[in-house]
Design goal:
By secondary structure, the protein is of the alpha/beta class. It has helices spanning 18-29, 41-50, 64-74, 97-103, and strands at residues 9-12, 33-38, 55-58, 79-81.
Length: 104
């Protein structure tokens, strides 16, 4: 089955490696104008080198103000993949707000 995304704009968070990287590459290969977000510039440099023309944005999504600014600069998108996430295990009642922001 060949699914095309020509004329669509896609934003993928957590796109530096793993599942997020695979999703970003698949959308890009399918014709989407793809914006790959990650907090690790080195991962984004590699992704961009492997996929010339893909847009990459280095941003820490746990910093809400910076994340909002980055997304506003990208503009509207047709496809959104919220893949970013970190999980640090700790008892719920001992979880700090900053840790919860990173996990979510």
């Amino acid at each position: 089955m060949d699914i095309r995304f020509d004329g669509k704009r896609a934003l993928v968070t957590g796109a530096g490696k793993g599942i997020g990287k695979g999703i970003a590459e698949a959308l890009f290969a399918g014709g989407a104008e793809t914006y790959a977000l990650s907090r690790t510039q080195e991962d984004l440099d590699k992704l961009e080198a492997e996929n010339p023309g893909m847009h990459t944005v280095c941003v820490d999504l746990s910093d809400w103000a910076t994340a909002r600014k980055a997304v506003e600069q990208i503009g509207s998108v047709d496809l959104l993949v919220n893949n970013a996430g970190i999980l640090e295990q700790s008892p719920f009642l001992e979880t700090e707000e900053s840790q919860l922001n990173q996990d979510i």
